[in-house]
Amino acid sequence: MLAPSSESNTASVFAPRATIDADGTVEGYASLFGELDQARDMMMRGAFVETLSVRSIRRVPMLFQHNPSEPVGIWLELREDHRGLFARGRLIPEVARGRELLSLLRAGAIDGLSIGFRTSKARIDPRTRIRRVYAVDLWEISIVTFPMLAGARVRAVKRSQARTRAEQEWARAAGTPGATGGLPSRIRRGALK
Fold first, then answer.
1. Distances (CA, A) of 156 to 4, 136, 153, 189
2. Could you tell me which of 152, 180, 154, 186 has the C-alpha nearest to residue 168?
3. CATH code, 95
4. Same domain? 189 vs 167
5. Beta-carbon contacts of residue 51 (< 8 Å; ≥ 6 apart)
6. Domain-located, residue 6
7. 123 in a domain, yes or no?
8. I need a surface site. Which of 15, 31, 100, 131 has the fewest CB within 10 A?
9. What is the DSSP letter of 147?
10. Position 18 pLDDT exceeds 80
């Protein structure tokens, strides 16, 4: 059984969790404390403290679907806070899969985050069969279609300033009214809201 969601109404379940801001970075929680995932694991506060102190941020790859042959970006910030493991990184647009993921995230088609780790310290409750994880060796964080933990999601996608400028120049060159706002309004109402 999954932990109850903090989102209370039906409309919020179907609302896109990714938003567009400014420069191609993604951020969200890769893991949340005290929430039960589909494998009956529950991360506990402090589970990432040791691994983050000994492993360089560059040694935690950003992958697509946990596939080690598909690195798609770099993590710029990983930190444990009161909610869980916060991750902020940048997809690399020169990588084909990185470009695809940016488009999919902006459209709300994909927004899951998932961690790849080795358990260092855990305890299984014999009554509930829930494994409480107290320490992990973090290997990677992936952008995924189906995260094991329902609340592990990308919460923001920041838009590239270069792309925004190019879209504005294209709109001006096309003679589209209202070219100061980026894409023409008939296109803006589409996938790039």
1. 23, 26, 9, 19
2. 180
3. 3.20.16.10
4. yes
5. 117, 120, 135, 136, 137, 138
6. no
7. yes
8. 15
9. -
10. no
Mean pLDDT of 11-33: 63
| Residue 174 and residue 136 share a domain | no
The answer for residues whose C-beta is within 8 angstroms of residue 54's C-beta and 6 or more apart is none
Return the SS3 of 41.
strand
Tell me whether residue 68 is in a domain: yes
End-to-end CA distance of the chain: 35
Pair type for strands 62-64 and 41-43: unpaired
CA distance 116 to 108: 23
Q: Are 186 and 174 in contact (CB under 8 A)?
A: no
φ, ψ of residue 83 in degrees (nearest 5): -90, -35
Which pairing describes strands 131-144 and 62-64: parallel, antiparallel, or unpaired? parallel
- Domain containing 85 equals 16-159
Asked if residues 158 and 22 have their Cβ atoms less than 8 Å apart, the reply is yes
For residue 84, the tally of other CB atoms under 10 A from its CB is 24
Highest averaged pLDDT of the listed ranges 13-17, 28-32, 102-106: 28-32
Nearest alpha-carbon partner for 13 in 153, 163, 170, 145: 153
pLDDT at 99 (0 to 100) = 87
* Residue range 37-59: mean pLDDT, rounded: 95
What pTM, to 2 d.p., does this model score? 0.71
Q: Is 8 part of any domain?
A: no
How far, in Å, CA of 167 to CA of 186, rounded? 14
